# Entry
Amino acid sequence: MVQLGAFSNPDNARALLGRLKQVRIPGYVETLRTPGGTKTRVRAGPYASEAAALKDRDRILDLKLASGDLRVGRKGD
# Structure
């Protein structure tokens, strides 16, 4: 998976997920509780391999759907 961000406003997370789906990048949201309040995390994936995740990470950056150092990880990270 590729972590794109964690949002205080779940509508912002769902909007990003919608943009991913428009360009046929798989994704999902997760709700998590943090000391700073509830966040909605957006991730691209899941992927069968790290190479596939890296390819979509680069595509996400090229399409300017997210910015920064997008972390590639495994389920449970």
The radius of gyration is 12 Å. Residues 5 and 21 are 16 Å apart (CA to CA). The helical segments are 10-22, 50-62.
